[in-house]
Design the sequence.
């Protein structure tokens, strides 16, 4: 920030803050594919966003926050020291220490674009000629289903799909991956 004479005042403080980041994606997209052949069927739902940024942080990212430990990325080689000034991470301190290290800033801002295989289902419908002997059953289909199977992203936080994207997401649970199987019987 500039002093009263219009020249830089030489200190970094709250007066130097600027709006950074892009919490609303430019692109939101999805693809729904399905196919069937000789009793087999497959359906795939993919969705994603592009050109969006989000903060990383919280107990899984910042060292010692709320009694948490230190993740493997916070090694001596990765953190700033007077001898290692080109380190990719700031100086290793307790989160509660009086420091600007963990304030929201462009350093903790990451690309949160992603493509997720939201749902995929593979099934097989047993031919009528095989179940025709059982008078009670009119149709039989066996299937396997997976939700949130794969996510392609550069985002290092728990889940790029969480909302809102302008927080670190420390108290939000990521989407879970669930795989199920089943049988549909038509009477």
Sequence:
């Amino acid at each position: 920030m500039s002093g009263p004479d219009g020249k830089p005042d030489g200190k970094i403080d709250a007066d130097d803050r600027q709006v950074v980041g892009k919490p609303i994606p430019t692109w939101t997209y999805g693809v729904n594919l399905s196919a069937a052949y000789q009793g087999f069927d497959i359906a795939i739902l993919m969705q994603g966003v592009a050109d969006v940024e989000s903060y990383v942080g919280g107990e899984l990212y910042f060292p010692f926050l709320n009694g948490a430990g230190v993740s493997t990325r916070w090694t001596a080689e990765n953190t700033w020291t007077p001898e290692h000034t080109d380190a990719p991470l700031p100086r290793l301190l307790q989160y509660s220490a009086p420091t600007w290290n963990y304030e929201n800033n462009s350093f903790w801002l990451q690309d949160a674009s992603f493509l997720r295989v939201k749902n995929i289902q593979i099934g097989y419908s047993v031919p009528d000629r095989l179940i025709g002997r059982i008078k009670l059953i009119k149709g039989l289909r066996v299937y396997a289903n997976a939700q949130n199977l794969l996510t392609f992203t550069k985002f290092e936080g728990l889940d790029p799909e969480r909302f809102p994207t302008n927080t670190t997401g420390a108290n939000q649970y990521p989407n879970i991956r669930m795989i199920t199987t089943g049988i549909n019987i038509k009477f």
